[in-house]
Request: fold
Amino acid sequence: MANLLVIRHGQASFGAENYDQLSPLGQRQADLTGQFLAKMGVTFSAAYSGDLSRQRETGQRVIDQLEKPPQLIIDPRFNEVQTDEQIEVMMPLLKERDARFADLVAAMDTDTKSFQKIIETVFNYWVSSDCDVSGIQSWADYSEGVVSAFEGAMASAASGTDTAIFTSGGTIATIVGHVLRLTSDRVYEFYEPVFNCSITRIIFNSRKCSLSTFNDVGHLQLMSAQLEERLVTYR
Reply:
């Protein structure tokens, strides 16, 4: 059997002009995750990342802590779901079709829970067979790219080795959905709760792959207590 560790990026710069960069806390989370893995004796035979800045920097910071860091392989198929594009295109359409959704949009600037529900509604419409929106990346194209990259990483791994993928919450949820053979309407359940720098472990061989752990931040919880820092974040 081999192990594949799917690691979410550290905290990005939410609310800043450029979201796609690690915050100082996100850099700290990535460094400490790498130190934890090094102490555990983990070595990666290969490491992959999407080409977003927050993914690449997290991956590089983590592997730089290891005794024998592999070269980080950049693969844009591990990029995040394009949430901003989906909201821009689909929010007006859904407002016209659903009065309850329109109420969420009216409250989104003052209520963070409303905004999260908007993201959920838009995502679930995007992955559904009812979605008839053109001009944006489709769920089929996105998920097929993620699965293809994921299966390629597994195919390249030798038995008994560890491989890392540094990516984002939507991509992690898509991988988990594939491993668990979930229908698309179940994927969002594994998207919303993903912590920064969490570790999802998948064990596999040439015949099968299984989800071992999902969204584990035990390393950051331990270090939070030891260092008296708040290291566990969603966003």
